[in-house]
Amino acid sequence: MAKLTLKEKLALLSDAAKYDASCASSGTTRRSSADGTGLGSTEGSGICHAYAPDGRCISLLKILMTNFCIYDCAYCINRVSSNVARARFTVEEVVHLTTEFYRRNYIEGLFLSSGIIKSPDDTMADMVRIARSLRHDHHFRGYIHLKTIPDADPALIEEAGLLADRLSMNIELPTDAGIKTYAPEKNPHEIRRAMGRVELRKQAAKERTHTGRRAAKFAPAGQSTQLIVGADGANDATILQSSTRLYSSYKLKRVYYSAFSPIPDSTAALPLIKPPLAREHRLYQADWLLRFYGYQADEITSAADGGMLDLDIDPKLAWALANRHAFPVDINRAGKDMLLRVPGFGVKSVGRILSARRNGALGFGDLKRIGALVNKAKPFITTRDWSPGGLTDAANLRARFAPPPEQLSLL
């Protein structure tokens, strides 16, 4: 086998990293090298942000350290039994790429994941060496997101948290049964234990030492995890319930949903549910409702057919249509919780409504100036000068929002 050049490795291992969901450097502490004493920044200045076709932010150098792997997870293109081209970066190569890409203003930081080579400890040790070299040898102050390995020595994960802005561990599938079936070499209990240790360590870092000093920061941007959507047959209700437990138990910054699509040489037994990207998008919208709008998972999926979200309309609108008895809402009297359930009202617009109505009753035109999506909201609200009449209960209300049917080609 011919030795790959660095450029060839980069092409292969950046493409292989697209199956890992990630985001840009939100939530971490502000660090800058504007004073000339270091390299990089966690702030947005001078960063070239790019977006993948499915909407993920890829403003980081997002790579695998290697796509060699000793595990044989059925849903993973890089599993040991998969017939794909393989490559591996050295520690020095990853450090070189990160610093050079940053100097050219291509990135704001590094997202680093890896297949498992030799053992979890060997792999995690190399990832920590990369972060350590960036921070200490090159004084890199940009964002680092390390996808850690739950089975690795806790001391390695401890050091990773002291070096990285965010840690993540993939829970992979929403049920233990799914993990046992499709990733039998992984232990869901160990993954959760490792996530718990990270959360406890993060909380401990907020406490002052016995001398009154603040402890060293530990993963200041928090930890996250990833759920693969569509690989194990779990419905959306199960996925959202799993997310709720993860948020509650580990105070996660985010749960990322990664749509599973057929991959070369994949296992025929995988129960693929289509269309994957549309489903992923609706799950992100539902996740937003869980985190910021006060919804419970069973509410969001209560009207779903077979526990699956409606792909034609967003989950907030779907809930409103299934609960028309709760509408219309008087925007001048309703509380914040109910205003947040009005289709077309976001968190910011609700805040503006609550502030503006202190000065007098609001009309329909006021909502437009506030920035609410009034065409979506008007069947569900009353204002000083607007009432929907029978529109709220109209039989064709869903059809007003759902995309029109398409004529399929016979050719």
How does this model look, in words?
By secondary structure, this protein is of the alpha/beta class. It has two domains: 6-294, Aldolase class I (TIM Barrel), CATH 3.20.20.70; 315-401, no CATH class. It has helices at residues 6-16, 91-103, 120-137, 154-163, 176-182, 188-204, 236-250, 276-292, 297-301, 315-322, 336-339, 347-356, 364-370, 374-377, 397-401, and strands at residues 61-64, 109-113, 143-147, 166-168, 223-229, 254-259, 329-330, 381-382. The strands form two sheets. Strands 1-2-3-4-5-6 form a six-stranded parallel beta sheet. The chain has a two-stranded parallel sheet with strand order 7-8. Strand 5, helix 7 (236-250) and strand 6 form a beta-alpha-beta unit. Helix 4 crosses helix 6 and helix 7 packs across helix 8 (276-292). The protein is globular, with a radius of gyration of 24 Å. Residues 41-56 have low confidence and may be disordered.
Number of distinct beta strands: 8
Number of domains: 2
Spans of at least 5 consecutive residues with low confidence: 41-56
For the termini, the CA-CA separation is 44 Å
Q: Name the strands of the widest sheet in spatial order.
A: 1-2-3-4-5-6
Shape: globular
- Calculate the mean pLDDT score and round it: 87
Estimated structural class: alpha/beta
Evaluate the radius of gyration.
Answer: 24 Å
CATH architecture of the largest domain: Alpha-Beta Barrel
Key terms:
8% strand; 6-stranded parallel β-sheet; 2 domains; TIM Barrel; 411 residues
Write the layout of secondary structure elements.
Blueprint: H1 6-16, E1 61-64, H2 91-103, E2 109-113, H3 120-137, E3 143-147, H4 154-163, E4 166-168, H5 176-182, H6 188-204, E5 223-229, H7 236-250, E6 254-259, H8 276-292, H9 297-301, H10 315-322, E7 329-330, H11 336-339, H12 347-356, H13 364-370, H14 374-377, E8 381-382, H15 397-401
Parallel strand pairs: 1-2, 2-3, 3-4, 4-5, 5-6, 7-8
Helix pairs in contact: 2-3, 3-4, 4-6, 7-8
